[in-house]
Amino acid sequence: MPGLVSPTLSSDDVDALLYLTRVNETAELQQTLSDLTQKYNCLPGDVIASAVDPDSGNTVLHFASANGFLDLVKSFLHQLVPVANTNGVNGTSADQSQSPQFVNRQNQEGNTPLHWAAYNGHLEIVKSLIDVGADMWIKNSAGHLAMFEAERAEKNDVVQHLLQTGGAHVERGGVETEPTIDEIVDVDTSPGEDEATSSGAAQQTGMGDVDMHDRQP
After folding, report:
1. φ and ψ at residue 204, rounded to 5 degrees
2. Is residue 152 part of a domain?
3. Per the domain annotation, does 80 fall within a domain?
4. Which of 7, 94, 131, 158 is least enclosed, having the fewest CB within 10 Å?
5. Can you give the CATH number for the domain in which 94 is found?
6. Domain residues for 110?
7. What pLDDT, in 10s, does the model give residues 106-124?
8. Pairwise CA distance, residues 114 & 117, whole Å
9. For residues 162 and 160, what is the distance between their CA atoms, to the nearest angstrom?
10. Are the C-beta atoms of 125 and 157 separated by less than 8 Å?
């Protein structure tokens, strides 16, 4: 039965998946996923969860989220999130049962796919990630929440959605480590950084290189 063991992809396999994601070559990417599921005798979700750049820590979900490829993000999430089959048994792969961990995977700069989607203002992707368990309280290496990165990039619709989502969650009663509602509101009302500070923070968190349309792997 496929999907019982996560595959160890070759470096060429990982490079191909990351590159095809970055340039949004959907048809070729799906064919590559199909080929790799046969090669490693696993499910597509296993391949997706194993496609991680060993140097940067970026995943296919980081790049799709950063560049606003909503259909691709939804496709990845559909293959990662457990879906009940007609017999009522979860058709999960080795990594599908741990989909929140993959969705919340941090790269070398501590950024999750949600950080990148929020920073670039991709509201529908932000919503999709949160719907499947993206944790909006994770901080990157600069100590910033995804909400803060959206506010710094002046993506006001994303900020507003995260404020509403976070506020509702805190009011329902969250874990002790989550911020209070006052702390959440402070993200939207705190004084802005000057240009030099903002630029430095972008470099520190890797946000300055989020848009990967024209970059080669």
Report:
1. -65, -40
2. yes
3. yes
4. 131
5. 1.25.40.20
6. 11-209
7. 999 999 999 999 999 999 9
8. 5
9. 5
10. no
